[in-house]
């Protein structure tokens, strides 16, 4: 029997606990979101607080509709969680004071170090170095199925890696390709655990798990475990979580550090009040579209998969925390359809997204049903490359105290919870329109 790697006392949950979670359908949250079109001045005081790990979460009362959430997010704070009539934001003290001055009712939530003993410690998760060691170990264990590539480096010079997983891993076959990206936002460490789980589970299941075997025979899967390694190291490696979201590139002419990588993508960048032009903001979109080095590395990798004029990647998941959601494009408009996204395109996104959500108990919806975002990876993937693209917001759901830092004891449960959803996407990746009964129209014979 194969033994899954465990770490620092992590334990597996019972099947009953997994089923109970899968049956729960939360209202949700969106870690990718939190637009702002601030034209205000730089806020170095807030930035200093964030660099020192002083940003924290606040619950904001009487916010119940998408337009209300969009108006709040346009102040530049990060909306982390969406409930029925409340939201949870991340803000520094100065930003919180500004919101109270604007009439918002804020209640501070306990910081990670102020919670019960159940709360996560940085050592509950693989560090960046431990992540690379684990990946190297999997590649050594499964050399016929896994291949690691360095696809670029971060601002501070750390390797950004992609791991190919396929039964023909040494060859570039003409098969549908699927991409999973993780850890675009620094504090979302559970997503790195998701990547490591998938590598081990799928490679280890080849030859014994019928669905996994079929997919590795018929697909090529690419996994990028950490898009934002500098931010991950900054948030984790000091031994105290810092609630850091962005990358770690300084902003010229400002004391503020970092760009929100999921507002920096070059499609409808800064178009619609779905990001901030303030370098101090949690959702700062950067000085220009695609300006962040990490964005460019992943973008170039995706473009490198165009062979003979055809994009080989057909489907994509960008893993975030938290909210237990599956989201699809577009984020920049409330409309279900828009230029480049027909009704059939939307319906196929929704059909596969809903089926995946049925398998893991998440809520499926268009990204903008929460609030407007622009410059996101999902919108770029679809509009620029025709790749069906989803965001998975992982555990916890709305109302949990665990937030971005759930305890290590839930990692195995919450990563394995997504196995069926991943397989559903892989199984549909050869023709996503099959999900709406239009395979012949769009995919030919």
UniProtKB/TrEMBL annotation:
Q: Which InterPro entries match?
A: CARBOXYPEPT_ZN_1, Carboxypeptidase_T, Peptidase_M14
Pfam families assigned = Peptidase_M14
Q: Which cofactor does it need?
A: Zn(2+)
Query: What EC number(s) does its UniProt record assign?
Result: 3.4.17.18
Kindly indicate whether the keyword Signal belongs to this entry.
yes
Q: Which GO terms describe its biological process?
A: proteolysis
Keywords carried by this UniProt record: Carboxypeptidase, Hydrolase, Metal-binding, Metalloprotease, Protease, Signal, Zinc
Highest taxon of the source?
Bacteria
Q: Which residues form the signal peptide?
A: 1-31
Residue ranges that the Swiss-Prot or TrEMBL entry lists as coiled coil: none
Looking at the record, the residues that make up the Peptidase M14 domain are 124-429
Keyword Manganese recorded: no
Cite the PROSITE patterns for this sequence: CARBOXYPEPT_ZN_1, PEPTIDASE_M14
What GO terms fall under cellular component here? extracellular space
> Which Gene3D superfamilies has this protein been placed in?
Zn peptidases
Instruction: State the reactions this protein catalyses.
Output: Releases a C-terminal residue, which may be hydrophobic or positively charged
For this chain, the family text in UniProt reads: Belongs to the peptidase M14 family.
The cross-references to PANTHER family, in alphabetical order and at most eight, read:
PROTEASE FAMILY M14 CARBOXYPEPTIDASE A,B (PTHR11705), SLL0236 PROTEIN (PTHR11705:SF143)
Q: What does this protein do?
A: Carboxypeptidase that possesses the specificities of both mammalian Cpase A and B. Thus shows broad substrate specificity, being able to cleave Cbz-Gly-Leu, Cbz-Gly-Val, Cbz-Gly-Phe, Cbz-Gly-Lys and Bz-Gly-Arg in vitro.
What is this protein's record name?
A: Zinc carboxypeptidase
According to its UniProt entry, this protein's organism is Streptomyces tardus
Lineage of source species: Bacteria, Bacillati, Actinomycetota, Actinomycetes, Kitasatosporales
């Amino acid at each position: 029997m194969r033994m899954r790697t465990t770490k620092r006392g992590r334990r597996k949950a019972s099947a009953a606990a997994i089923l109970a979670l899968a049956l729960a359908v939360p209202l949700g949250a969106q870690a990718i979101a939190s637009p702002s079109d601030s034209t205000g001045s730089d806020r170095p005081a807030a930035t200093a607080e964030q660099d020192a790990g002083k940003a924290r979460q606040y619950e904001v009362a009487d916010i119940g509709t998408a337009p209300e959430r969009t108006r709040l997010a346009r102040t530049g704070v990060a909306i982390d969680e969406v409930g029925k009539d409340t939201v949870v934001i991340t803000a520094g003290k100065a930003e919180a004071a500004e919101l109270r001055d604007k009439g918002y009712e804020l209640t501070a939530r306990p910081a990670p170090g102020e919670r019960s003993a159940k709360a996560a410690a940085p050592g509950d998760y693989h560090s960046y170095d431990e992540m690379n060691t684990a990946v190297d170990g999997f590649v050594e264990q499964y050399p016929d199925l896994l291949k690691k590539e360095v696809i670029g480096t971060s601002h501070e010079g750390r390797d950004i890696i992609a791991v190919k997983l396929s039964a023909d891993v040494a060859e570039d076959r003409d098969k549908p390709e699927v991409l999973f990206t993780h850890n675009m936002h620094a504090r979302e460490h559970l997503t790195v655990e998701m990547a490591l789980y998938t590598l081990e589970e799928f490679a280890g299941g080849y030859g014994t798990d019928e669905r996994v075997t079929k997919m590795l025979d018929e697909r090529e899967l690419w996994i990028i475990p950490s898009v934002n390694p500098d931010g991950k190291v900054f948030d984790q490696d000091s031994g105290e979580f810092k609630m850091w979201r962005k990358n770690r590139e300084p902003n010229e002419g400002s004391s503020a550090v970092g760009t929100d990588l999921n507002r920096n993508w070059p499609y409808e960048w800064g178009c619609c009040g779905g990001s901030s032009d303030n370098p101090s903001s949690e959702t700062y979109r950067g000085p220009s579209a695609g300006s962040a080095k990490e964005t460019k590395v992943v973008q170039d990798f995706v473009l490198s998969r165009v062979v003979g004029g055809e994009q080989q990647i057909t489907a994509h998941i960008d893993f975030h925390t938290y909210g237990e959601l599956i989201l699809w494009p577009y984020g920049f408009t409330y409309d279900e359809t828009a230029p480049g996204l027909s009704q059939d395109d939307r319906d196929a996104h929704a059909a596969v997204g809903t089926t995946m959500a049925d398998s893991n108990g998440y809520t499926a919806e268009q990204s903008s049903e929460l609030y407007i975002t622009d410059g996101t990876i999902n919108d770029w993937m679809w509009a620029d490359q025709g790749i069906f693209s989803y965001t998975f917001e992982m555990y916890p759901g709305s109302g949990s105290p665990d937030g971005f830092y759930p305890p290590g004891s839930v990692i195995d449960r919450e990563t394995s919870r997504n196995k069926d959803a991943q397989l559903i996407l892989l199984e549909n990746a050869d023709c996503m329109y099959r999900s709406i009964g239009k395979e012949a129209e769009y995919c030919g014979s």
